[in-house]
Specification:
The chain has strands at 2-5, 12-13, 17-18, 24-25, 35-38, 42-43, 68-71, 77-78, 91-94, 100-101, 114-117, 126-128, 130-131, 138-139, 149-152, 156-157, 173-178, 184-185, 194-202, 209-210. A hairpin with a 5-residue loop joins strand 3 (17-18) and strand 4 (24-25). It is mainly β and 215 residues long. It has no helices and 20 strands. The strands form 7 sheets. Strands 9-11-15-17-19 form a 5-stranded parallel beta sheet, with no helix packed on it. Strands 8-10-12-16 form a 4-stranded parallel beta sheet, with no helix packed on it.
Length: 215
């Protein structure tokens, strides 16, 4: 139920679980994980299109057990598909040391309600992948249709055509909090994603620049 990968600078090599001639899945696929601490970089080749059998590192067969994830100070990148299909994960905090998140990292995380991007001590931009499972491709959090609270304390970089909340599921965010560390809100960042009564709170000492079609 609990997996604690200790903090450390050396990466950890993760392999697939081979459960049949054609069915690969993540190494913890049949584990009832509830809590995960990710303390170091993972080297993991998902090598799949997220079909019925293939999962990310923490893709679990029951989809609903994982309730808490923490990310340590040595983690710089989150591999593609890493938390895919975890439908009950309620919140995730991306610390400032993370500089990139791979494609489909949060695919079908449909219980995700709160997303926090913490400040980078080095003012590093966080580069976001996209959701490739949708046809056509969409934003990284396209399938997180419960998402209602977003906190931004850093700048996000993403392909212009795929802002992170772009989704046919119509993600509608209720609360946005902007803190020191976020100096610019990107192109179409919250385009067509806000509830009519959405509250936007700026706690930053200097309000961020607002670019084309942000809201």
């Amino acid at each position: 139920k609990t997996l604690f990968i200790e903090d450390g600078p050396e990466p950890l090599d993760i392999k697939k679980m081979i459960s049949g001639l054609i069915s690969d899945s993540g190494p913890f696929y049949d584990s009832p994980l509830e809590t995960v601490h990710l303390g170091r970089e993972l080297i993991y080749d998902c090598d799949n299109d997220l079909d019925a059998w293939s999962e990310g590192v923490f893709g679990l067969s029951n989809n609903y057990s994982l309730k808490k994830v923490t990310i340590g100070k040595y983690v710089r990148t989150l591999t593609p598909f890493i938390f895919a299909k975890n439908k009950a994960l309620p919140s995730i905090t991306i610390p400032g040391n993370v500089i990139s998140i791979g494609n489909d990292a949060f695919y079908n995380c449909r219980g995700l309600k709160e997303l926090v991007f913490e400040k980078s001590s080095k003012d590093e931009v966080l580069e976001l992948g996209i959701d490739t499972y949708s046809l056509p491709d969409e934003g990284l959090f396209a399938w997180c249709d419960s998402l209602s609270n977003v906190t931004l304390a850093r700048n996000l970089k993403y392909p212009d055509s795929y802002p992170p909340f772009k989704s046919d599921w119509k993600i509608t965010i209720d609360n946005i909090t902007i803190k020191d560390g976020c100096t610019s809100l990107g192109n179409k960042l919250f385009y067509d994603n806000l509830e009519s009564n959405c509250t936007i709170t700026c706690e930053s000492s200097t309000p961020p620049a607002i670019t084309d079609d942000t809201f």
